[in-house]
Write a structure and sequence with these properties.
With 62 residues, the protein is an alpha+beta fold. The chain contains 3 helices and 3 strands; from the N terminus they run E-H-H-E-E-H. Helix 1 crosses helix 2 (21-29). The radius of gyration is 12 Å and the shape is globular.
């Protein structure tokens, strides 16, 4: 059985967070959550992104 990936792309993360792709790209580049370049695109660790969302969108500061 193939393991489901826990990584998502910038467009998927933007939809998940309700922000623009440019904002997610900026946050990825500046280390707000675990993200890495794979070939010509960013991939983001979903667990890290969920933790970021939980901490930032529940009264925290962006």
């Amino acid at each position: 059985m193939k393991k489901k990936s826990n990584k998502i792309t910038i467009p998927e993360a933007a939809e998940f967070l309700g922000v623009s792709k440019a904002t997610v790209t900026y946050w990825a580049r500046t280390g707000h959550f675990k993200a890495e370049r794979e070939k010509d695109r960013w991939v983001i660790d979903m667990k890290s992104l969920q933790e970021f969302k939980d901490s930032q969108f529940t009264g925290g500061n962006l």
